[in-house]
Amino acid sequence: MTNFITRIAQAAAFAASIAAATAASAGGEPTGVWIDHTGRGAVEISNCGALLCGKVVWLKDAAHGQTCGKQVIGNVKPVGGGKWDNGWIYDVDEDRRYDVEITPMGDRLKVMGYMGSKFLSETMTWRRAPADLKRCDA
Fold it and tell me: Is 28-128 a CATH 2.40.128.520 domain?
C-alpha cells in the first residue's frame, strides 16, 4: 500500500511540474524590449544572473535623453506559475521605486507595481517592441 501511495504522489508531482512548465512557456519570456503603457518609452528586460533587470532603451521624446540607459527594473525573481516578483520598478515620472510583479502574456507583459501589498496596486500592460525600434543607447 505504501508503494502505491508513493507512486501516486510521484505521478502527481510529475504532472504538476509538466503543467507548470507548460503554463510558463505559454506566457512567453519576460526578456526582450517592451514599449511601456504610456507609449513614451521602451525598456529592455534581460537576465542579470538568476534575476531580471531592465533599462530604458528608447524614448519617444529625445528631450528626455538623460533617461536613456537608466536602470528602471531590478532584482525580479521567478516565483512560479510564469510570474516574476519580489523586485523593484522605478517610476521616472514620480521619482519613486515600487515593488513589481511581471507576468509575460505572449506579445504583452503585465506589469504590476505595488507597495508591500498587492491589494493596493496598479497594473499596466506593456507590448513587445518591434525589432526595428531605433534605440537611444545604440
Answer: yes
